[in-house]
Write a structure and sequence with these properties.
- The longest helix is centred in the C-terminal third of the chain and has 23 residues.
- It is globular and about 50 Å long.
- A ten-stranded mixed β-sheet has the order 1-10-9-8-7-6-5-2-3-4, with helices on both faces.
- It has a single domain, classed as UDP-N-acetylmuramoyl-L-alanine:D-glutamate ligase (3-Layer(aba) Sandwich), CATH 3.40.1190.20.
- The chain is α/β, with parallel strands linked by helices.
- α10 packs across α11.
- The chain contains eleven helices and ten strands.
- The chain is 45% helix and 13% strand.
Length: 285
């Protein structure tokens, strides 16, 4: 099975747009993202994911991390609410979406968090060390039925399936199908022409550039996906819009900064203009 045969190219001009906002809307109308991560030394990952959720329209974002991550949020995202971990999620508000993994680490506190999160039924996006912990526990960790989006790079996909990264890259289309068969949910296999596997179809994203292969880029994608779920898109819509928006923002940023100089924060900064471009595309159809 080749990518060309099995997966359909997404079209930036026709991917879903953000839902229109009612004039009577308030911040509670657009969901509440809890971004869970920010272990020692990795507060920046949590800040990037939290900011990305806000940039696509989430009404509220709470960052849940190790206290050492607080300066990152204070400096870069004063709009975010803060909660220390280890935390309990017994009191989550309605319309909560979890973005799990940015800078999480793999210590005991992270394991305990994932054991609890696996029993929650709210929508979730799993990335980074959340995927590495999932690989250790297996699908039994996902005890509750929930909408879950998983975003592994090839190395994480290899750990989830107990194979080599080279084997993943040799047949990416088969691998993403195996991931869904083993763990359920909706999948993005990141890389050149990232693959997407949802409920209603399978696609690849023709956008993006090598400059996006930089630390923090995946954290921005995680926040985007969680924010899109929070504002009301379904999982397949969030997959297609989220991956294309991330890639289009990366292309816009690379055109301005150059691929070699691209930082994850440049992708984040390009999200608003990419969203405006998409709105113009839809208005022109």
């Amino acid at each position: 099975m080749t990518m060309k045969e099995a997966f359909v190219a997404l079209n930036w001009r026709t991917v879903p747009a953000l839902p229109a906002r009612s004039p009577q809307a308030h911040k509670g109308s657009f969901g509440h993202v809890f971004a869970v991560g920010g272990g020692p030394g990795m507060g920046g990952a949590l800040a990037l994911a939290s900011a990305a959720a806000y940039r696509v329209g989430a009404g509220l974002v709470t960052a849940v991390g190790h206290p050492s991550a607080i300066p990152y949020l204070a400096a870069h995202l004063p709009e975010a609410i803060w909660r220390d971990w280890p935390a309990s999620f017994a009191d989550l508000p309605e319309h909560t979406v979890l973005a799990v993994g940015p800078g999480l680490g793999q210590g005991l506190a992270a394991h305990d968090l994932l054991l609890e999160i696996g029993q929650l039924s709210c929508p979730q996006v799993w990335d980074a060390d959340a995927l590495n912990i999932l690989a250790r526990f297996g699908p039994e960790l996902l005890a509750a039925d929930a909408v879950r989006l998983f975003t592994p790079h090839p190395g994480e996909a290899a750990r989830l399936l107990g194979m080599t990264t080279a084997a993943v890259q040799a047949d990416r289309a088969t691998v993403i199908c195996q991931l869904q068969a083993r763990y359920g949910g909706h999948w993005i296999l990141k890389g050149h022409h990232s693959l997407l596997l949802g409920t209603s179809g399978h696609w690849f994203c023709p956008l993006g550039n090598p400059g996006m292969a930089t630390g923090g880029s995946g954290d921005v994608l995680t926040g985007i996906l969680a924010g899109l779920l929070a504002v009301g898109l379904d999982a397949d819509q969030a997959l297609s819009l989220g991956v294309c928006l991330h890639a289009r923002a990366g292309d816009r940023a690379a055109a301005r900064m150059g691929e070699a100089s691209l930082l994850a924060r440049d992708i984040l900064s390009a999200i608003p203009r990419a969203l405006q471009e998409l709105t113009q595309n839809h208005d022109g159809n």
